[in-house]
Amino acid sequence: MNGIIDISTGKLLLAFTFIIIAQASSFIYHLGLNRDIAVGAVRTFAQLFLMGYVLTFILGSESLLLTVAVFAVMVVSAMFIVRGRVKEKQVSYILPTFLTMLVTYFATAMFVSGLIVGTTPWWEPRYFIPTGGMVIGNSMSAIAIALERLFRDLRQQREVVEMKLALGANYREASDDVFRNAVTAGMIPSINAMMGVGLVFIPGMMSGQILSGTDPLIAIRYQIVVMFMLVGSTAITSIIVMLIVRKRCFGSGEEVLLTPR
Amino acid sequence: MNQPLLEIRNLTFTYEGAPVPVFEELDLAVRSGEFVLIKGPSGSGKSTLLRLVCRLNRQQSGTIHFMGRDVATIPPAELRSSISYVAQIPQMVDARVGENLLLPFSFRANSKKPVPQPDTLYRMLDEFYLGGVTLEQSALKLSSGQKQRLAFMRSILQEPEMMLLDEPTSALDPESAAMVFSIMERLNREKKMTIVSVTHSDYRPESVKTLTFMLENRKLTLAP
């Protein structure tokens, strides 16, 4: 079977049956989730429709400027999400994190879209935007986890770090363990995903390709590229961000700037 | 010879958000081989003073010179490998006693210093009243008093020019405190180690000559 079966508006409304089941469960068992489920359902509906129209426009535009602009908006949104999760006030980490994300994600999407898939032009929106989206979505979580861990551990282990500084360590030597643990914590989800893929779950992109009629043997090739891309981009982005932000946690005398909350 | 090892001039420090400085226009000169005690009530800034000398706190005003050089111009790791600061609560890494003692030698600033051999470490453990402790046992399982003595020993192994001790006996029982005091005096007497120790106890060394200062009401004054 080739091509995809369209879902008519009537059938789309039929999918609301699942929301009604969730609402009924919340109502019967007093879960207090009715409002959240309703808002979530409406937002899903509205945001995805909006995205659909935006993507239709961008894919048809064939404009480099527009493609890069959409990419930049995605990175800015990711940065806001990271900032919302990390909530650190004493160390300014936002600008270096944003710039690192922008450059490494762009380079990754360019590499995958232009070199591995080999689209012409390299920024072909149909490949560049979804590739960028997957890199940003995945790596954003890793950076948030790693930053949270870096700040938390430096605060919790401040006395041990200061002990090492007092014994002649430079700031890198004194915070070596904290740095390593932060990067590892951010990377573990991507590595676990590589372990479970194809056995425990079928990734969204591959499912989407298969649903739209792509040969599964082609879909898996794309998925392999995506999995490797996610691990690589997460590693490089996390390490660069952690190197820059860790330096900012120390003053000119290599003293720890983070004080207990 | 007359140049002080440590010379502090016009040092003022204000904690973030505090309306007044914890101390102001503080002067202090410590010569090589001296044993200096700084006493004063809690919150008078004694610990902050020591932390400013080894740059664990950021200097706001005044000057601090060590061996004739402004500490702000000495690379921090180099400075701290010459001035050994021992915190009030001794910290150990989650490793064996031997690894904790040799920790400073894993840092680049100490890479040219000779690494002590196990027989030297065992001899020193005896001298620091840690005769029953082995290099293979876990450092985290030692008592507070043992950790404090081990922290001292680790600092001495670096062969610093000066030691800064922050309330070295505040968390210890009288017996352990007496051992620590005895070690401090012996280091000063036998190895001519320059020691600056802050304390709010009534400790008065008997076997060595000391200079005692009082830090209170934001001023440092020589005690009679």
Kindly describe this structure.
- The complex is a heterodimer of chains A (261) and B (224).
- Chain A is mainly alpha-helical.
- In chain A, 77% of the residues lie in helices and 0% in strands.
- Chain A contains eleven helices and no strands.
- Chain A has helices spanning 9-14, 16-28, 34-61, 64-86, 94-116, 125-156, 158-166, 171-174, 176-196, 204-211, 216-248.
- Chain A is globular, with a radius of gyration of 22 Å.
- The relative contact order of chain A is 0.11.
- The model of chain A has no long low-confidence stretch (mean pLDDT 91).
- Chain B is an alpha/beta fold.
- Chain B has a six-stranded mixed sheet with strand order 6-7-8-3-9-10, sandwiched between helices. Chain B has a four-stranded antiparallel sheet with strand order 2-1-4-5, with no helix packed on it.
- In chain B, helix 5 packs parallel to helix 6 (174-191).
- The two termini of chain B are 26 Å apart.
What's the quick description here?
By secondary structure, chain A is mostly helical. Chain A has helices spanning 9-14, 16-28, 34-61, 64-86, 94-116, 125-156, 158-166, 171-174, 176-196, 204-211, 216-248. Chain B is of the alpha/beta class.
Number of strands of chain A: 0
User: Main sheet of chain B, how many strands, which sense, barrel?
Assistant: 6 strands, mixed
What is the average per-residue confidence, as pLDDT of chain A, rounded to a whole number? Answer: 91
Strand order of the largest sheet of chain B: 6-7-8-3-9-10
In the predicted model, the low-confidence regions of chain B spanning at least 5 consecutive residues are none
List keywords for this structure.
heterodimer, A: 261 residues, B: 224 residues, alpha/beta
Set down the secondary structure blueprint:
The complex is a heterodimer of chains A (261) and B (224).
Chain A: H1 9-14, H2 16-28, H3 34-61, H4 64-86, H5 94-116, H6 125-156, H7 158-166, H8 171-174, H9 176-196, H10 204-211, H11 216-248
Helix pairs in contact in A: 2-3, 4-5, 4-6, 5-6, 5-11, 6-9, 6-11, 9-11, 10-11
Chain B: E1 6-13, E2 23-30, E3 35-39, H1 46-53, E4 63-66, E5 69-70, H2 76-82, E6 83-86, H3 97-101, H4 118-127, H5 144-157, E7 162-166, H6 174-191, E8 194-199, E9 211-216, E10 219-222
Parallel strand pairs in B: 3-8, 3-9, 6-7, 7-8
Antiparallel strand pairs in B: 1-2, 1-4, 4-5, 9-10
